[in-house]
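Appendix B, example 12.
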Amino acid sequence: MAAGGYPTCNTYKNVNGHKVPAYGQPTPSLTCNLVLNTSRSNEAVKVLQTSLNSCHNFSLAVDGYYGEKTFLAVRSIQAAYLGESHADGYYGPQTRDVMKHWGLSGCSRI
């Protein structure tokens, strides 16, 4: 289990045409976390990086590794939308709810 007692996101789920990091198959759950991980590429991290680039004007490599640049981008989103005291750099349900996600119709909150 990752931070917050949630499993690590390892896939994505389409929510109203937007790809959102998720956990599990065949019915992915949105209740998951992403934490620093530079040892293995992850599809959920690629989805997150695409949303950070397309919806929040970052310039991250979409490589699936949750490294320092992705960590700092998530922390920036958290500080802006949740406040500095909630900015830990880890993607989870609270961050999911406040950030915009990329989809066929552009960027929006889910």
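The beta strands are 11-15, 18-22, 101-103, 106-108. The chain has a mean pLDDT of 90.
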